[in-house]
Write a structure and sequence with these properties.
Ribosomal Protein L22, Chain A, two-stranded antiparallel sheet, single chain
């Protein structure tokens, strides 16, 4: 079985301290329109999603660069749970690693947001690989 995990911790103030002149450009570069809409300008929510993106890039073993921020999307599920959607090169890399199922967890304090992701899939050569 293929198993990958990633974790990331973000200071929420990191987003709060962004220069107002570049904040909106940064947010539009990192987050999809749906992510921005669902967050409704809540910086703790955005910090959590930022942490998910970093954690996913770590689980994919490549970091941000070979894949872009917007190729990793965190949506709100029917019960409010985070759901991961991969696009483009992120989805291609996950497929190459045989990662088909993802679990995402996000937590916050007043000052920190943390995310952990776990991805599973059959090993190369197993059924469906």
């Amino acid at each position: 079985m293929a198993l990958q995990c990633g974790v990331d911790l973000v200071e929420i103030q990191r987003l709060e301290r962004l220069d107002p002149q570049i904040r909106q450009r940064f947010l539009r570069r990192v987050f999809t329109p749906l992510e921005l809409e669902e967050a409704n300008e809540d910086l703790a929510v955005l910090a959590g999603r930022f942490a998910v993106k970093e954690a996913v890039a770590k689980a994919l073993g490549c970091g941000i660069g070979p894949i872009s921020w917007q190729e990793i999307e965190v949506r709100r599920g029917p019960e409010g749970q985070p759901l991961l959607h991969l696009h483009g090169r992120a989805a291609e890399r996950a497929a190459a690693l045989h990662l088909r199922e993802w679990s995402v967890s996000i937590t916050h304090t007043r000052t920190l947001a943390m995310a952990m992701v776990v991805a599973l899939g059959p090993s190369e050569g197993e059924n469906g690989a």
